[in-house]
Amino acid sequence: MNNEVAISVENLSKAYRLGLREQRPETLTGAITSLVRSPFRNYSDLRKLTRFKGSEVNNGRSKINQSSPEDVIWALRDISFEVKHGEVLGIIGRNGAGKSTLLKILSRITDPTHGRATIYGRVGSLLEVGTGFHPDLTGRENVYLNGTILGMRKTEVDKKFDEIVAFAGVEKFIDTPVKRYSSGMGVRLAFAVAAHLEPEILIVDEVLAVGDLSFQEKCLGKMAEVTRLGRTVLLVSHNIGAIKSLCRNAILLSDGCIAASGEVDNVISSYLTSLRRVEVTDGNEANQSKVSLEDIRISNGSHAAISTDEPFEVCVTLRTGQPLLNYDLYCMLRDQTGNFIVHSRSNDRTLGQTVKEGTHEIKVQFPPMWLTPGVYTVEFKLLPLTKSLQRRYFSGPLLLEITGSANASDRLGMLTPRATWALETEESTAQLCVAK
Questions:
Q1: Is residue 427 one of the residues assigned to a domain?
Q2: 424 in a structural domain
Q3: pLDDT tens track for 222-255
Q4: Nearest one of 183, 116, 192, 99 to 150, comparing CA atoms
């Protein structure tokens, strides 16, 4: 094995068997018969848990039968990749794509059905922040308990204790039982312990969205610090901005398979392209018409960098196989954590009337919004104006990067407007400055 390789995954597959409701006897005779048969039935059930008829193994490689039993779900299907020492690899995909299952196998929480994963180095996992915290113990006691669970020695915890508590911002409450903490305080302390690990390989699953906005920024800063130290990191997140800023390479999972891999920008582009076209059948089987919102783009390109004080135009293509009556279109802008920044609705004269069958291009013009520089997403949704219409149509997100000058990037808050300041006295009003 190459000494540069930190993680090697070969033909990894994981199957889960869905639980079935137990058949309970309705009569005394049936209950007695069931009791006699229980040992044999339990033995048969145990064999079924580890034997999957939907797969075979050939020369170490799993061959998965697509016609697996209905009670078997393949969370991963023949996953193979390598991660080098010092590499930061992002893993993205829809919910249910198999991301968390992959990390649980790499963290030795669960075993694969087929294939193997080999890790070279000390591993620290941040899969579920707060695991190992006991509500009756104080924050101080939980720091030592949680640090031990995560693989830290007592001397390591002693050395980092003050830094952990300061990072979490719970100095005044460190000797208070955790059950009296707010949910946010407990999560902050748990992340602070996990974030101060010093493993060679760090596995992180969607923990950069804990706490409030200011603490999330601290989390991103801590992760950036870890990557600068040259540690190997596997990062799963729906925060596309965080993946883009922290990772050079990424993997896109879809239905348990690798749909794309390589440079992070290319993988993100593939992910957004897969989300952009969302079609919903009308529901009338005789008609089978379709409506879709697709090809979202900024007027100057599909991926745009817009200045914080620059107006811009968003375009979307609406395709419909039948006339649409009483529908309204919404354009939404979200930040990296999924919070709504803008929620603009078309007026009745735009889509309140009938939209004819065919292809239509819809444009939304935005004035300068003075957004803090960063990465945002733009989405569209088509909703009915009346309760009698049940169908809703959604587009996938478009990545939008807001840029700004150096003195604008260090400002706090969501918006960075050029505000005018003035000092008013009894004699006169003197204009002080204009923020730039």
A1: no
A2: no
A3: 877 887 888 888 988 877 777 887 888 999 999 9
A4: 192
User: What is the reported pTM?
Assistant: 0.65
Which whole number is the average pLDDT over 274-285?
A: 49
H-assigned helices in 169-324: 183-195, 213-228, 240-246, 264-276
Q: Is the same domain home to 23 and 164?
A: no
What three-state secondary structure class fits 246?
A: helix
Give the domain CATH number at 177. Answer: 3.40.50.300
Q: What is the pLDDT of residue 282?
A: 43
* Cβ–Cβ under 8 Å, residues 75 and 15: yes
Mean pLDDT of 395-419: 68
- In terms of DSSP H, where are the helices of 206-304? 213-228, 240-246, 264-276
Does 333 reside within a domain?
yes
Q: How many domains does the chain have?
A: 3
Task: Tell me whether residue 7 is in a domain.
Answer: no
Q: In the chain, what's the furthest Cα-to-Cα distance?
A: 102
Lowest mean pLDDT, pick from 18-22, 53-57, 109-113, 370-374:
53-57
Single-letter residue type at 378 = V
CB 190 within 8 A of CB 139: no
Question: Can you tell me the distance from the alpha carbon of 166 to that of 89, in angstroms, rounded to the nearest whole number?
Answer: 29
Distances (CA, A) of 325 to 43, 104, 213, 346, 399: 60, 48, 41, 14, 30
Give CA 276 to chain center in angstroms.
17
Which residue spans within 284-397 are E strands per DSSP?
Answer: 290-298, 304-307, 312-320, 327-334, 340-345, 358-366, 374-384, 393-394
What are the tokens at 86?
Answer: 């010092």
For 236-258, b where at least 16 C-beta lie within 10 A, e where not — what string?
bbbbbbbbbbbbebbbbbbebbb
CB 281 within 8 A of CB 322: no
